[in-house]
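Q: Give me the 3D complex with magnesium ion.
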Amino acid sequence: ALLLGTAGYYSIKALEKASRPVYPKDQRKKVVLLGSGWGAMSVLNHLQPDQFDITIVSPRNYFLFTPILPSVTVGTVESRSIVEPVRKLILKYHGCDQVQYYEAECIDVDHKGKRIHCRDVSGIQGTVSEFDLDYDILVVSVGADNNTFNVPGVNENCYFLKEMNDARTIRNAVVDLVESASFPGQPEEEMKRLLRFVVVGGGPTGVEFASELRDFLREDIPKIYSNIKDHFEVMLIQSGDHILNTYDEQISDFTEQNFNRNHHNVEILTGTRVIGVEHDKVKVLDKSSDQKSTIPCGMCVWSTGVAPKQLTRQMMLKIQNQKRGKALLTDEYLRVKGAEGIFAIGDCSTIEQNLMLEKAQQLFEMADVNKDGQLTLDEFVGLIEKAKHKFPQIQLFFSKAEKNVKKLFAEMDTSGDQALDIGEFKNLLRTLDHELKSLPATAQVASQQGKYLGKLLSKTNANPELLRDPTDALKSRGVYQFHYRHLGSFAYVGDNKAVLEVPVFGALNGWWVMWLWRAAYASECASTRTKVLLVTDWIKSYIFGRDTSR
Ligand code: FAD
Ligand code: MG
Ligand code: MG
Ligand code: MG
Ligand code: MG
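A: Here is the predicted complex, encoded as structure tokens.
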């Protein structure tokens, strides 16, 4: 059966390949991908070979599996285990001569002339170190920078956790701090300062880094540095009231309790804003009491969300119709507003959202099937089906449970007649619009957008006519607006425990979730090579402990 299955699989593949139209090389549209992260590599994966003339431009010649990056900061996992060279991915998806890659950064986009300008970032002085590329389709997936909120001293004194080098720098600094703290005659006060690690930002990245650090300090340090083992402390600062506040409440409670159990050495400061960072201390403001205080520390890691990169900012200024927001504005087909042929995905982009309230009358008429000027629950449910593509807030609101629909309907029916009139309906729309948040800056979003865009380009053959007004032309080809499907969020919370939130099951936590977490990431890793490396690292650090050489 296995043999037959395998044979069947490969013959289907071969048939698929044979039935695919072959595009002569000079008729292929030029597709340029900016970036080698989650977004761009997912587009690459979903474009058919032989259909386009594809070029990738990225200063980083590898893909980085970011969800495991916090584990690299303390050596649970080695850095080589979570990267995959771009050229290997090209080979895997397309065969090596089909796709060009240039290790350079794009520094200018001429959206009218459909041409980009690129520059070598390696510092090598070649005859050519800057060059131009023409494109028919440009996919911008350059990611984002760290958001410092202009807090003084952050850029100069904080560590970030975004790229591989950041993780390596942190790993070295942690080891250096531990070594310096154990110098002879080091005063106890100073020992405590050196071994106090402050993490700013209670999102998944901040929490995972704090967890890894805590594990390292508890599991490995006592064995090798017995003199300092009682002095370290990890402090997690969050300006909101809860950590992991985008997750289910149960998850953030579990995580806080897990940290708070007194022997765990992680202290959480919520409702606290950082107002300045110096090389040896963090200044904070307690939001409820308005009290300022100073926390001496050896290291401050900053992880509070995303801000646009230089190139993104420049494009927003140059292209008309771009509001000066935090990211490139696209429509639901991921087309950058005001620039034909350019698409943007991932952390550098945001989808413009339609407010339902502005279309209240129209929506009401659409929903009111029997035209009696009232909406019954059934009519309202029908509307949800019809409008969900155009107004994602409907789904965001109702994704958690069907019963929410009934509940909201009853709440909004203030007259209590089991029906909504136009006034009640408008209030309901206001509530739904309020739910509208832009999609989170996650790998899950970026890779789904990449997959969508790959299909969109393949199905239209990047035909400019079709892409100009995709609505009807694409429906017949089965392409609709981009629609995000949240598959769930994992976070490692330390002490061999992880949390998981899935739309169908809700919040889950515990040691077995950590194994699920590991299995999920191991199976998602880009290649067999990285899978093997990753699993080996986990086993190695479990058996032998983490490597404390810098
Ligand atoms: P990136 O993946 O950041 O890729 C950007 C690419 O563009 C890079 O290759 C960069 O070199 C390149 N580039 C930059 N400037 C230029 C230029 N001028 N020209 C050309 N190329 C350029 N998400 C999850 O869903 N789950 C998680 O568990 C998770 N954990 C995370 C942990 C950490 C520590 C971090 C930092 C992020 C995590 N994320 C997670 C978020 C996720 O990594 C990002 O949302 C995702 O990487 C966004 O993909 P992207 O393609 O937009 O950008
Ligand atoms: Mg990318
Ligand atoms: Mg985005
Ligand atoms: Mg009616
Ligand atoms: Mg009513």
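A quick observation: The domain at 22-145+308-351 is CATH 3.50.50.60 (FAD/NAD(P)-binding domain).
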